[in-house]
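Bench log, entry 3. Co-assembly request; chain sequences pasted below exactly as received.
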Amino acid sequence: MITRLDVQHIAELADIGIASEELDEFTHQFNEILDYFDLLDQVPEQECQRIPECNIWREDEIIPALSQEEITRNAPGTEGGFIRAPRVM
Amino acid sequence: MGFPDPYNAFITQCEPEKKGEGRLSGYTIAIKDNISTRGIPTTCGSRILEGYIPPYNAFAVDRVLAEGAIIVGKTNMDEFGMGNTTENSAYGPTLNPVDTSRVPGGSSGGSGAAVAAGMVRLALGTDTGGSIRCPAAFCGIVGLKPTYGRVSRYGLIAYANSLEQIGPMARSVEDVALLLNVISAYDSRDSTAVPKPYDHAPDPNIQGVRIGLPEEFFGEGVDHRVAATVYRAVERLEEQGAETVPCSMPSMQYALSAYYTTCMSEASSNLGRYDGVRYGLADDFRKHWHQAFQEVRQKGFGKEVRRRVMLGTFALSSGYYGKYYLKAQTARENVRADFARLFTMVDLIAGPTMPTVAFRLGEKSDPLSSYLADILTVPANLAGVPAISVPCENVHGLPTGLQLIGRYYDEERVIDAAYAYEQTTKKGG
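Structure output for the full assembly:
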């Protein structure tokens, strides 16, 4: 059973804002959906198939790419060819 | 300005511009708005990408332009592909041209409606759990989800990478096959792309083809009138020389839970890129990072997207990963194994595309009831096998789709059988 508090916590983890008046609706829907997902409990335990490959290395190659101007063109804020971001500290 | 769009099929209309000369010369095409088009706004049906103009073309877009197709516009869709009605769009719902009180299906509903209404000859859609086949069935057109890896996903804005494919939509099987021919070339920029170009013109000879009919595709939850229509379509294929084989797919029981757990988990990671920094909506840069991030995502994402990102985050979170995500992967493996077993006995699997006819606008307001309608389309995505929806008889004036699923890279047989069926409906019988 998921509570309003759980939903608030999940929203925090997912970095998605949630209004207090939305909490009841989301809580109700999460419970309904997760109850349905509980069907997965009946899936027998079994080792998942694993692809027998790991760590395939190659040399770096330089290939044609977008220019800095093209890359920053969609950014809402730029400064001196760099992308602006909110405060981190 | 622009052309009339009575069904709200388009988010952006384009200046018709001819770029190349080739197999699609003079053909009009609509592109779903989650496929990148250089210089043309691409929104994914979301507010969060408002104002975003891709600096490059998706591989499939480059291919259709090189063959002379004319891009008419970018089509409406459920936000990021999350839905089966096209009502989850920030740009308003698309209406079904067959009956405007109904949805066109989704998430490629704009592409489906534009093709069905004759506004374009061809369209590109994307299919993560049925998003090409569902609107094809609801609007009465043909739509194909290719084998996973057959069409490059380069430039497709990701929602659930392990499930989604770009695919063709059109009014005839021949046009669908032609568009698949054009877009299925190898592209090294998609690491899951496989060099299996498609080069086959439809052939209606299906003598001796074995078609499996899993009981789960005709059972509980499937409207009996839709099931009866599809059975009649299969009889037509038998008259053309196909053999039918009753069979069963027990893994269907868990397929929907496995699908939704997987796509939500992948979405929670994929959609992390929408932070209001590199593109799209932005918040006040003076705010603290997490506050700005949370606010921009609350403002920019619709409710269904927020729901899926949150549930995906939950399914991957410590303590629940084993219960949801890992179990879903086991269930997914069982779906693959079921297909592998069936395809040793039959060449194709047939059933309805959707369990009902098109919903009324607003009918699927409860998320779970909307998810349940995907039960017949998600198995092909979980396994990665190709599947087509081809129109069969109407039920009370509304289109239904016959779904044909094939072996990996066996689009040839899927398309031939769809073509054989289409020919029988054209003979006026």
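Chain A has a mean pLDDT of 92. The beta strands of chain A are 78-79, 82-83.
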